[in-house]
Amino acid sequence: MTAKAQSPDPLFPRSSPGSLIAAALLVGNSVLMLYPIVIMVFSAFKTTGEIFDAPFSIPDFTYVANFTRIWGETSLPGYFINSVIITGSSLALILLLGTMGAYALARYDFPGNSAIFMFFLAGLMLPLKLAVIPLFLQMRDFGLLDTRFGLILIYTAMGLPSTIFIMTGFLRTLPTELEEAARIDGASEPRIMLSIMLPLSVPPMVISAIQNAVPTWNDFFFPLVFIQTDARKTLPQGLSVFMGEYTTDWGMLFAGLTIAALPLTIIYIVMSRQFIRGMTAGAVK
Amino acid sequence: MRLDKRAGLSPERCFNRPGLMKTDYRSRERRRRAAWIAFLIVPPMAMMLTFVVWPLLVALSSAFYRWEGMAQGEFVGLQNFSDVLFGDHFAALTWRAFRHNLFVFFALFVVQNTAGFLLAWFIYREPFGFRFHRIAIFMPVILSTVLVGFLWKLFLDPNFGLINQLLEMIGLGGLRQPWLGQETTALPALVMANAWHWVGFPALVYLAGMQRIPREILEAAKLDGCSGWQMLTRVVWPLVAPSTTITLTLLFIGAFNWFELPYIMAGLDGSPYGSTDVLGLYFYRTAFGNQSGGLQDFGHGNALAVLMFMFIAVVATLITQYLRRREIAL
């Protein structure tokens, strides 16, 4: 990309009128994308009165009463911890099971291999939301209603197709010579997988992890249906409770939104390249 | 440990046990390999079957039964389906919600996908600052719909919202609206919030598509005297057809599964007066009841879900098939 930008004869010189218009429109668009987020963060450092009187002003960043109140008197920290537990466990399970399945599909020829691959591929398209009624009854029968574990299982199942798709695609590209050489040296199949193939597979694992982390962390629908107990609610779900409790206290509302946005935003700023690749994986070859 | 395993495979061992024939050794090895493969593939398959495939199959079959609350009653054939599509209590709401979904799809096609395509082109031209804009445009995509919904609900507040304050500030106070409180503007306002949230997705899918176009093609077009706009419409647009296929299909699926944003911004009843009611909300209300009481009706809920699923699957397949024919292999 860098090389392209520095090529001696760019396709669209930066000083051409077209490029200047493009630059101007992009600046306008970026303002539109980022300014609402900036205002959200600014408002978190204001009292409700200040937000109403001077919505665009730059706040006094030493005013952190909204945040200390959220820490002290609301359930938001608890929701936050639940989301960390649920997203973390789901990701661990997705990567474990997804890599296992993908490894079998990519490295071994066995009867039914391509049929099973198609089975997972079809899962990419199935909207599980529409099966939420039977899922609800099933979770009730398993005794998993209103539990974090139940959500973890659902997210794991939902994340498997895309992970298997990405990981199989990658593992198939690894040369057979690698594993043949290890086999001749007498390495067992699990040893070949763990010591030789998987250390090479970290990049697609990161992509799969991001692709699943964002929707899982952000999901609202399944907690809405399955979780009733306040102490087990996730951050998006808890946010809707919180927003209902403090409807008129806008300083608190914006502080709550800021806290909810913070973790992914920071990780995104640090790893934007991987995020963009992870979240468009599947839509982009 | 490693030595033990090697010993199990070593030729010496086979040699020392004359009864063990080569084929036996091979078949034992094959069985061990099969067990290993099964160990790898069975757990993920079991997860998928239990939590995705089975519920979908049950949703399909239970739509043919009468339901009393959460208890399954007798077989009623297509009764639930015909109730939902043509019955007195359901049909008007079903078709109104369906029309709203259609509107959302077409509106988002313009303000989200078409805008995304143009923005992708601007970034592709690599003007000053394009790396920053590429990151900025994708920023809202990573935020949760709940967060985006509440944020825009606050911005669209009739009295203290940012939008109305901004209009006042630039001297357009006459245009102040209760954006989410009146039937004419509520659904368009939701569409705009959704476009803000998601425009980065089609933009970066298109950008990736454009970056796969061989540079020589665009250089040739430039030599032939194509203007930037002609290059975009006559050369780039046909060549990014695969990106159009995928973004349009995903937009269609998303528009007809739309639930979280209207739920947060307009409530489960699609306020005001059902002007933002879409199939997702209507399905949820039918299945689980709403806050103001309402009964759980799993039979009609499942029927709605099955119809939505079939509609989405059939149309998405048709869109994909149709658009694939436009695609040119590069």
Task: Name its key features.
heterodimer, A: 285 residues, mainly alpha, MetI-like fold, 2 domains, 15 helices, 73% helix, disordered N terminus, B: 330 residues, two-stranded antiparallel sheet, 16 helices, 2 strands, globular
Give a written overview of the molecule:
Chain A is mainly α and 285 residues long. Chain A is built from 15 helices and no strands. Chain A has helices at residues 2-5, 17-44, 48-53, 65-73, 76-107, 113-123, 132-142, 148-171, 176-184, 189-197, 202-218, 221-226, 235-245, 250-270, 272-280. In chain A, helix 4 (65-73) crosses helix 14 and helix 6 (113-123) packs across helix 8 (148-171). Chain A is globular, with a radius of gyration of 24 Å. With 330 residues, chain B is an all-alpha fold. Chain B has two domains: 2-62, no CATH class; 82-324, MetI-like fold (Orthogonal Bundle), CATH 1.10.3720. Chain B has helices at residues 2-9, 11-16, 22-62, 79-86, 91-124, 130-138, 145-155, 162-169, 183-198, 200-211, 215-223, 228-239, 241-256, 260-266, 279-288, 298-324; strands at 65-68, 71-75. In chain B, strands 1-2 form a two-stranded antiparallel ribbon. In chain B, strand 1 and strand 2 (71-75) form a beta hairpin. In chain B, helix 10 (200-211) runs antiparallel to helix 13 and helix 11 runs antiparallel to helix 12. The longest helix of chain B is centred in the N-terminal third of the chain and has 41 residues, at 22-62. Chain B starts with a helix and ends in a 6-residue tail after the last helix. The chains are: A mainly alpha (285), B mainly alpha (330).
